[in-house]
Amino acid sequence: MGFGDLRAASGLKVLNGFLSERSYIEGYVPSQADVAVFDSLSGAPSADLVHALRWYHHILSYSQRSSLPGVKKPLGQYGPPGLADTTSGSAPSAAKEEEDDDDIDLFGSDEEEDEEAERLKEERLAQYAAKKSKKPTIIAKSSLLLDVKPWDDETDMKQLEALVRSISMEGLLWGQSKLLPVGYGIQKLQINCVIEDDKVGTDMLEEQITAFEDFVQSMDVAAFNKI
Amino acid sequence: MALRELSSLEKYLGLKKPNKYSTQGDKKVPVLQNNNGPPLVGLGTIASHLVKVAKRPNLLGDSAESRAVVQQWLEYRVTKLDGCTKEDTKAILKDLNLYLQDKVYMAGNQFTLADTFMYFGIHPIIVDLSVQEKEQYVNVARWFDHIQRCPGVRHHLPPLAVLRNRIYTSKHH
């Protein structure tokens, strides 16, 4: 929710898009929701944001805005869902203020000022690095069940299995296997494997397995489950 | 159709005694026979009369300018909209879309008769529009959706889904 920064062009654009199919911020009558957003604007939106402008003039026509129904909620509660609430952007502005104060400190020596600026910079870099490393990288994995079919019943299934297991790739782990009869004495190898989605693809696997042309007639993915 | 609209309007206005209407001519112009006065002929005339009877003059516009605009749209409804051909509807929708770009209501900043009767008149056109066309006339869609949700307006007409993203709440069904 939220429109982003309504003092900036990006926020106003979101507001414009939101109002293209709505007459009011919330519901179908003017309410404190409209007042809240109206008060946060620094002036009329520009002429190219037709919907925002229309809404602005309409709300402007209500002289008793405080008597409109509803309860004012923080700005981040209104607007299109799915947009990250950026109204709590007070942290960077506070840090900026800090820096401004440093600049205004006329009685401090130059050396001191540099040190302060350096220290702040280091602090912020450290914060950024910490934030980045804290983000856990979730590796997407899937569990596959592959059916490997031989040419005929004379194929040595043990060797076929050994060949399949010999395929090693980063992000590929072989699991259990069993032999299933398909008829006429032919057996197919059903083997499990766990792959990391980013690193291994089924077509890669298929290529490598069917490369053993003497043994493997075809390969199918019998089951594909996300873990 | 005009008669149903007038009875819808009566309900909206809360008029207790429904009037008896008749029609004249092959265009089925509605006629209201007043007991003591001359008969009133015409959709706009009768509607304005009903509004005054119900003592809701603001429905005709709250300023001289908006009163004029309301009359303009009532006239538009009867002359241009009723009985228009398929080719005309495109031009009408285009005009309306442009007009509604900077307006929430048809006249002024409040709901008026102009909104009611333009809504009634446009409804059959909107029924036939495809999703792409509704997206094309985005202002008409917005205004239409707004008016059809105003309490008490939409008596005899079914609600229409004009906006793509809105999930229709069950109470409208």
TrEMBL record, chain A:
Pfam families assigned to the protein according to its UniProt record, in alphabetical order: EF-1_beta_acid, EF1_GNE
Region called Disordered, residue ranges: 70-117
One function term, GO molecular function aspect: translation elongation factor activity
Residues annotated as domain Translation elongation factor EF1B beta/delta subunit guanine nucleotide exchange: 141-227
Compositional bias annotation for Acidic residues: 97-117
Keyword Ion transport attributed: no
InterPro entries named in the record: eEF-1beta-like_sf, EF-1_beta_acid_region_euk, EF1B_bsu/dsu, EF1B_bsu/dsu_GNE, Glutathione-S-Trfase_C_sf, Transl_elong_EF1B/ribsomal_bS6, Transl_elong_EF1B_B/D_CS
Domain of life: Eukaryota
Residue intervals of the Elongation factor 1 beta central acidic region eukaryote domain: 106-132
SUPFAM superfamilies linked to this entry: eEF-1beta-like, GST C-terminal domain-like
Database matches in PANTHER family: EF-HAND AND COILED-COIL DOMAIN-CONTAINING FAMILY MEMBER, ELONGATION FACTOR 1-BETA
Function recorded in the entry: Catalytic subunit of the guanine nucleotide exchange factor (GEF) (eEF1B subcomplex) of the eukaryotic elongation factor 1 complex (eEF1). Stimulates the exchange of GDP for GTP on elongation factor 1A (eEF1A), probably by displacing GDP from the nucleotide binding pocket in eEF1A.
Complex formation: EF-1 is composed of 4 subunits: alpha, beta (alpha subunit of the eEF1B subcomplex), delta (beta subunit of the eEF1B subcomplex), and gamma (gamma subunit of the eEF1B subcomplex). Interacts with elongation factor EEF1A1.
Family: Belongs to the EF-1-beta/EF-1-delta family.
Protein name, entry field: Elongation factor 1-beta
Automatic annotation (TrEMBL), chain B:
Top-level taxon of origin: Eukaryota
One Pfam family recorded for the sequence: Arc1p_N_like
GO cellular component, one term: protein-containing complex
SUPFAM superfamilies: GST C-terminal domain-like (SSF47616)
InterPro entries noted in UniProt: AIMP3/p18_C, Arc1-like_N, EEF1E1, Glutathione-S-Trfase_C-like, Glutathione-S-Trfase_C_sf
Domain GST C-terminal: from-to ranges: 49-171
Protein name as annotated: GST C-terminal domain-containing protein
